[in-house]
């Protein structure tokens, strides 16, 4: 088996917040002990709800924020130990598409300037042709280059965001909920675009989303996160979920088919605050199968046959 | 102070037009017109009057407004209009330069504090808040007491008195813009701190800070006049609006024009700056951003 | 028997433009109607028209009728309308974060419905509030009443907004994308809760959404809007089994299912045209893969279908 493009080992990030004269700062672990490997040419989905740490994980693997513990390996190099200059050169190869196409483009830049920035940052000259080529790659007309972001629709802006990520011809692109703020019709357009670009350019994706249905369609492998930790890794989209949370996520996904209408609400309650996590399994409070053991001890992510890993004392 | 210059390299940005758009309302046009008039009058003062500002003629003292002396003469027989024009030079240039430097330094400090945060931020903000906790006039008086009366003292006094305002505003803007995704996007491309600051943060933070600088210039004219009134500003025979009013107080009933005209000049100019500033805020649509600070 | 709400041939004009034209559907008690379409298709404007809130954006219903429980709403005065809104017609907005006043306790905000619309005393209103919160399965209702919006999670806030809507014991609830701001597991809870309440109490729910998945999950009937016109209306099962309008087909195809093969999700090319740039003929023709010459020139009439209507020159077969 070929060496994976990106690996993380025990990746952990803690944040402290608040704290002043009278209050003690509170700390939370946004990402806890994540170890994963992303094979070349694959689409790895990271799925979870708000506060599960998926966006923090995205920023950690690109070293946009520094880990509290753990390492990130990219194509054999230790990304976490790279000095600033080398990291900047490495950034050419790993890029990101952001969630909100409205705030991810500087309102004062024309589209041409947005697309020129990657080259300028890396100290390169930009040709008009390069901009036109990028625009056509993402299905936008060349005259769009002179427009300002506020003149574009959400879908068009996100295409610009994709084009910017492709400008430096990266190997690896992190897609941080690129369709979450778009209409479903535009979401499908963007996903189709990302699929086409992947096969044309041989990209490797890490796709972050809260929509398990979309992830199951788009990705080859799926990591499910809950409150900072990976609770299940599915080696393929066909693999049946074994963690009760993954099951619940799947049951919360609405298929466009009235015959598949859910009769029961999958889950009760909401995600607890990451600032005061229970001692045992973070999901125990909402889990229909939780036992005293679950509330007392935290299950480890344990490997099973075929690369299926699950962190649960009572897997389904 | 032009907001247009800073954005010119970005082509015809909406801000370019805003400076002119603020002139489109009747109030904005009137206020802007007065400001232009005062600035032109100050610049071309030597061409506009046949008299010299320090030409004394005791036998012409205390003359009321007439055809020869449109605004009358003062206690030394100097032409009041001439002194008003030259006084405008002092008042406007001292306030303008002091505020200009203050805005610049405030933006540098505020950007550094807002962008790098942590201990750097604490150090800068403690120093800045120290001046913020006294009224501007007190800060200015203290500084003039240390440096000594005169134009240099006034410049430093005004500049420092308003520094906290610009530093705080810039810092708040930078901190807000820092969390915009396009800043993170630039960093993910490998952009350096300097590039992020000059390419994204400062250009987007500029408009509110410059407008607040413009409004502060109005206040600064009053502060300059106040220092002049106490004899701490520009020293005789250099005219300034404040000093002219000061000498007029003793003669309020004998020759009221000596105090009335410089007083009117200060009042109308300051009001005009405020009205035009408000029009500019509307034209730039930055009301909420100014309040956020 | 006539339906609770009947919108017929409704046209809405704002200044020189006509963003809505020929909108018609019915909604009965105990029923959930999904009003579906992309941003800019006119869903929210339709809701505004029913709520009588068009004057806020300078618009008016320029033709057609909106009948609510026997009353013609298009000719209703503002005072009479105010009696309806909040009491007989309730609205649930997309963003629970902005629908609540940050400076008032939850209890006070829900109580107002009782004191304002039913002339109840404050104690009575609070009793009713606690009752409604309990019905919404909100644990520790009394504690929630005493808290402020910022102390609650997004899902809980949306429940409170629903409670405010229910407190008026409305006949009709209009919900504009009530779950888009929520986590998926919470979205499922809220959708089920709404559906259950509507059926139990015999209320009517007009659910505005762009997500065919949500529609399939809880609606009884669907009205699909495109660029200010009704594209298709039908009962839920036939609509999903054999969508007749190409736009309905495309909207359904936007959501991947378990059996969707990789690389086959396409989305709908292009975007909804702006009101000022509605094309002639069928407004969907520039994006429609099946468009013929007649589609570019002639507006398709609404044709009856076994369980509804479709406005297309070449509708799909009735049996999928």
List keywords for this structure.
heterotrimer, A: four-stranded antiparallel β-sheet, 12 strands, 28% helix, 22% strand, globular, C: 320 residues, alpha/beta, Rossmann fold, eight-stranded mixed β-sheet, four-stranded antiparallel β-sheet, 12 helices
Explained architecture:
The complex is a heterotrimer of chains A (316), B (293) and C (320). Chain A is of the alpha/beta class and 316 residues long. Chain A has a domain of 64 residues. Helices cover 28% and strands 22% of the residues of chain A. Chain A contains nine helices and twelve strands. In chain A, helix 3 packs parallel to helix 5 and helix 5 packs parallel to helix 6. The longest helix of chain A is centred in the middle third of the chain and has 18 residues. Chain A starts with 5 loop residues before the first strand and ends in a 6-residue tail after the last strand. In chain A, 49% of the residues are buried. By secondary structure, chain B is mainly alpha-helical. Chain B has one domain: MetI-like fold. Chain B contains twelve helices and no strands. In chain B, helix 1 runs antiparallel to helix 11, helix 4 runs antiparallel to helix 5 and helix 5 packs across helix 7. Chain B starts with 13 loop residues before the first helix and ends with a helix. The N terminus of chain B is likely disordered. Chain C has a single domain, classed as 3-Layer(aba) Sandwich (Rossmann fold). Chain C is of the alpha/beta class. The model of chain C has no long low-confidence stretch (mean pLDDT 89). The two termini of chain C are 31 Å apart. Chains A and B meet through helix 2 and helix 3 of A and helix 8 and helix 9 of B. Chain C: Belongs to the ABC transporter superfamily. Chain C: This is ABC transporter ATP-binding protein.
């Amino acid at each position: 088996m070929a060496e994976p493009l990106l690996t993380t080992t025990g990746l952990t990030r803690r944040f402290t917040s608040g704290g002043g004269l009278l209050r003690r700062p509170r700390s939370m672990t946004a990402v806890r002990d994540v170890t994963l490997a992303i094979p070349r040419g694959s689409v790895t989905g990271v799925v979870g709800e708000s506060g599960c740490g998926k966006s923090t994980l995205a920023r950690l693997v690109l070293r946009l924020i520094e880990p509290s513990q753990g390492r990130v390996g990219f194509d054999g190099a230790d990304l976490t130990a790279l000095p600033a200059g080398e990291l900047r050169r490495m950034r050419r190869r790993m890029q990101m598409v952001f969630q909100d196409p409205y705030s991810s483009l500087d309102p004062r830049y024309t589209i041409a300037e947005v697309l020129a920035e990657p080259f300028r940052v890396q100290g390169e000259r930009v040709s008009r042709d390069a901009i036109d080529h990028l625009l056509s790659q993402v299905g936008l007309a060349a005259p769009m280059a002179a427009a300002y972001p506020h003149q574009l629709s959400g879908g068009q802006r996100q295409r610009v965001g994709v084009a910017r990520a492709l400008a430096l011809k990266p190997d690896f692109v992190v897609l941080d909920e690129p369709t979450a703020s778009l209409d479903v019709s535009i979401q499908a357009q963007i996903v189709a675009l990302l699929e086409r670009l992947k096969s044309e350019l041989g990209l490797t994706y890490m796709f972050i989303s809260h929509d398990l249905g979309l992830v199951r369609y788009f990705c080859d492998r799926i990591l499910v996160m809950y409150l900072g930790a990976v609770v299940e890794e599915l080696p393929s989209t066909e693999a049946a979920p074994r963690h009760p949370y993954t099951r619940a996520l799947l049951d919360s996904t609405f298929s466009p088919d009235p015959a598949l209408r859910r009769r029961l609400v999958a889950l009760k309650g909401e995600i607890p605050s990451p600032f005061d996590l229970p001692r045992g399994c973070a999901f125990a409070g909402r889990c229909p199968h939780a036992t005293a053991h679950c509330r007392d001890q935290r299950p480890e992510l344990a490997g099973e046959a075929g690369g299926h890993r699950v962190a649960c004392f009572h897997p389904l | 102070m032009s907001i247009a210059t800073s954005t010119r390299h970005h082509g015809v940005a909406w801000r370019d037009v805003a400076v002119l758009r603020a002139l489109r309302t009747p109030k904005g046009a009137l206020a802007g017109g007065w400001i232009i008039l005062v600035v032109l009058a100050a610049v071309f003062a030597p061409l506009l009057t046949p008299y010299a500002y320090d030409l004394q003629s005791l036998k012409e003292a205390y003359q009321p407004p007439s055809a020869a002396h449109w605004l009358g003469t003062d206690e030394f027989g100097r032409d009041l209009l001439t002194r008003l024009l030259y006084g405008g030079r002092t008042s406007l240039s001292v306030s303008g330069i002091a505020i200009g430097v203050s805005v610049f330094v405030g933006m540098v400090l505020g950007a550094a504090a807002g962008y790098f945060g942590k201990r750097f931020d604490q150090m800068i903000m403690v120093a800045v808040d120290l001046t913020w906790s006294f009224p501007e006039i007190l800060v200015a008086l203290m500084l003039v007491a240390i440096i000594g009366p005169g134009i240099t003292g006034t410049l430093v006094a005004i500049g420092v008195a308003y520094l906290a305002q610009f530093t705080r505003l810039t810092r708040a803007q930078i901190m807000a813009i820092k969390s915009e995704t396009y800043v993170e996007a630039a960093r993910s491309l490998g952009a350096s701190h300097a590039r992020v600051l000059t390419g994204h943060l400062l250009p987007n933070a500029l408009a509110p800070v410059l407008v607040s600088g413009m409004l502060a210039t109005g206040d600064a004219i009053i502060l300059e006049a106040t220092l002049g009134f106490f004899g701490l500003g520009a020293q005789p025979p250099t005219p300034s609006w404040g000093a002219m009013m000061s000498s007029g107080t003793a003669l309020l009933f004998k020759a009221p024009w000596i105090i009335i005209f410089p007083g009117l000049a200060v009042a109308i100019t300051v009001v005009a700056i405020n009205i035009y500033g408000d029009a500019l805020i509307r034209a730039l649509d930055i009301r909420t951003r100014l309040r956020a600070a | 028997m006539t339906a609770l709400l009947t919108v017929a041939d409704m046209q809405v004009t704002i200044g020189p433009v006509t963003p809505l034209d020929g909108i018609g559907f019915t909604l009965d008690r105990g029923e959930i109607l999904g009003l579906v379409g992309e941003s800019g298709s006119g869903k929210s404007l339709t809701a505004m028209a029913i709520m009588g809130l068009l004057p806020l954006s300078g618009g008016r219903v320029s033709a057609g009728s909106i009948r609510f429980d026997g009353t013609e709403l298009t000719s209703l005065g503002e005072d009479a309308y105010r009696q309806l809104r909040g009491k007989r017609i309730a609205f649930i907005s997309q963003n629970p974060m902005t629908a609540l006043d940050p400076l008032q306790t939850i209890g006070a905000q829900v109580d107002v419905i009782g004191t304002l619309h039913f002339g109840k005393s404050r104690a009575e209103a609070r009793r009713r509030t606690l009752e409604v919160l309990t019905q919404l399965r909100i644990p520790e209702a009394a504690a929630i009443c005493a808290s402020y919006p910022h102390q609650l999670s997004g899902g809980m806030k949306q429940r409170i907004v629903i409670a405010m809507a229910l407190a008026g014991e409305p006949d009709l609830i209009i919900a504009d994308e009530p779950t888009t701001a929520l986590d998926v597991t919470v979205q499922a809870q809220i959708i089920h809760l709404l559906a259950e309440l509507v059926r139990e109490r015999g209320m009517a729910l007009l659910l505005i959404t762009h997500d065919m998945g949500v529609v399939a999950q809880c609606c009884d009937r669907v009205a699909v809007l495109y660029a200010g016109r009704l594209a298709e209306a039908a009962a839920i099962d036939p609509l999903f089994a054999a969508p007749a309008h190409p736009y309905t087909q495309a909207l359904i195809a936007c959501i991947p299912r378990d059996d969707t093969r990789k690389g086959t999700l396409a989305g709908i090319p292009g975007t909804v045209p702006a009101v000022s740039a509605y094309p002639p003929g069928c407004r969907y023709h520039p994006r429609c893969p099946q468009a013929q010459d007649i589609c570019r020139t002639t507006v398709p009439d609404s044709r009856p279908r076994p369980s509804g209507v479709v406005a297309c020159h070449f509708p799909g077969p009735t049996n999928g």
